[in-house]
Design a protein that fits this description.
50% of the residues lie in helices and 12% in strands. By secondary structure, it is of the alpha+beta class. It has two domains: 60 residues; 39 residues, no CATH class. Strand 1 and strand 2 form a beta hairpin. The radius of gyration is 22 Å and the shape is elongated. It starts with a strand and ends with a helix.
Length: 100
Amino acid sequence: MRSVGTRSEPVDINNLEEYISLVVDATVKTGITRQMEAFKAGFNQLLSTAANASSNGNGPSESADNDLPSVMTCANYLKLPPYSTKEIMSNKLLYAINDG
């Protein structure tokens, strides 16, 4: 079934191409706009932070305590940096879940 305005109609050979076009648009284009904007904002923030650190002469930190955990969702894999304490690990995980 596909929605047309306020009504639904079955998908058949006559409207299949339009249905596929609408599904692709919703999943690949307009459907991910919010996620792409959030990604761009985070990426720009990361670049800005890295630029500030290098211009201050600090350079990147060698401590894993400054790193956030990352994931590979396709493999259900959580990558944790070697944090120096469980408290730091807990704080970084909570930050990544809630704000990351």
